[in-house]
Description:
- By secondary structure, this protein is an alpha+beta fold.
- The protein is about 35% helix and about 15% strand.
Amino acid sequence: MKKNIVRFVSLGAAALICLFEIRLKGTDALSAQQTDAQSARSSDAEITLNIPFIFFTEIPEDFEKFNQEFRQLVETELGFSANLTAILSSGRTTTATMMKNEGIVFDLFPSTLGAPFTDQENLLALDSLLESDGTDILNLFSKKELSSESVRIDGHILRLPNKSDIAECCCVVMRKDLLDQYGITEKASSLEELDQILEKIAQSENERFLIAPSRLNRSFLNRYYTWFPIGGGGLVLMDYGNAQTVEILYETEEYQKMVSMFYRWRQNGWIPDLAFLNDFPANDLVRSEELIGYFCHYKPGIDTQESMKSGYEMEAWILTEPVLTSDQTRCSWSISKLSRHPKEAMQLLNFMYTSPEAMNLLNYGIEGHNYQVDENGNAVPVSSPQGSIYYSALGWELPNQYLCLPWGEDPCDIWEKTQTFNESAQIPDGVGFTFSGAEYETELSAMEELIEAYAFGLETGSLDPKRYLPEFLEKLQKAGSEQVKKAANEQYQDWRDSQ
């Protein structure tokens, strides 16, 4: 009998926030020119900067100790101390808005903080600050990387891309001990093969759920896709963005096969019940021995990362091909327009992008307390009872993950492998094309409402596709999907001819 899952989510401020400050001590009297709000240090008052750091599972118990170490490091290197605000992803908008209402300004932040804080109108143009205080950052990126549409807007750099894995493909991670126990030696390389292996596991497993999306409030297609979106209304280019015509995803044979499979999985009892689809990660269920595996983005080292998050050794099975869009970045860093001290904020960013010590601290915690360096030069958990594992599993959120030590059993050349993985990814033919639907706002709005009503249920196996998919498609056509698709194809062919 599968275990009942009961989850309670609290968004209380005390549970979500570990708020600290950056204090920059000025000592000399400054001239009127030096006290300009864009670059000044104050001589008679402390300058306070705030940096949010987003956690997706839980805030480590020893975060305050780790933060004190980070503050001391920055004070030693830059002459001022840096402190972080730890926020859980599930409540980040509520928490950040509450803090803003209390007068707290985030001076620099990762894109994971999310809207409205990371919206274009709230970001400071960084061009001049990079020239004066961020030259080391400029040396890390090519002109092409800093010309991406997600980085440079209206001619100005608003977001700094980070150095991490940027190619994407989907995998599932599975508990290796249970695979060994059930004699599963093959690895799935497609949804169809995954389905066959789940059938084998189900013959022996009746205590745990078998498979789940990456987070329990998301669909399986949040991580799995072999298409490239080019606009709203489900408009896509199939075949990893290499198709010659635009289609509506929900009309494709591939979509019909996938949602039929998901429905069967749920009918078999392999997926956690819909009633428990709260906003928490699937690795929580693995840790509590209620789930065997889940979908996630693949990258070199994903086995190690998800093993740390799940509490069990996990094995990754790659299901799709790696793709890379020229406009893609996993995470970016920005400075707020509201910051009264952007010069110092850029100095801190410049340090974070270039300091191995800072990156290891942010990713693994305190050396000697949370981790130690083994004979291979890898970071590993400390073995003493006094130590605790801080490991954030958020290297992709850091300014420069490539500066981190390899973790655990990762190969010493993990970052070379990551770079090779990035370079191996195909760039879809359709990169750069986006459907301009200004003349079809009414149709697109109606289509999006239908997608909101049907897609999640179909893509979690909750709705029977034999009944609800035809109903969904019929309503899409009545909403004008054929006209929208025709217009998108005309625009796409014109765009292809111009390339």
